[in-house]
Request: fold
Amino acid sequence: MGKHSTGRLGRAALAAAAILMPAPGGTAAAAGPAGDYRLVGEQDVASGLRLRPDGRFQYFLIAGALDEGAEGRWSVAGRIVTLTTEPKPVPPVFTQGASAKTKAAPLTIKVSWPGGRGIAGVDLRVGLDDGVVLDDYTQEDGWSLSEVEGRKPLWIELAVPMHGARSPRFPIDLEAGNALAFTFTPNDIGVFDFDGVKVELAGKALVVHREGAQLRYEPVRD
Reply:
């Protein structure tokens, strides 16, 4: 998502370079589960996890337009490895700005970065008073609702699903204004929070349970 993604892409790239080039003499058996692991069995996805002997970890995942990374502490108890992202990432947030009146369309929506540049590709859902929900996405110059034959938009929700960023349901008051402006503040977007994510030992491999999937990480050998 434009220049605001530069920091997170840099973190993911550094983590990828570190993990895919194992430390000299390092294997997954160096200190319990400590070592370098690479995701296997997934197409068009690159991901790695380094568990350092000093109790720190590094992680990256690249899948299409998604680039994410993390670092923090790890510990092991029995077959369960606990990863704690540090510092705890601040999630991205949508905030609503002032509404304005326009005759350009019954309803216009614009989502911008904090600096004011418009964002393309933000998912939106607009609920109408007859129960119909419109699904679409923004362009850099915004989004507009064409004539709806007397139906009235009541609310809007915004989302960037690949990063799990979702807005609350914002009510729409056309009397106050039909040109709505929102700001998307990325904060620590792209930094993955392992809080609540189960990671277990499976022989010499690690299995990460995430969003209903079981991602298998095998040791990286020298």
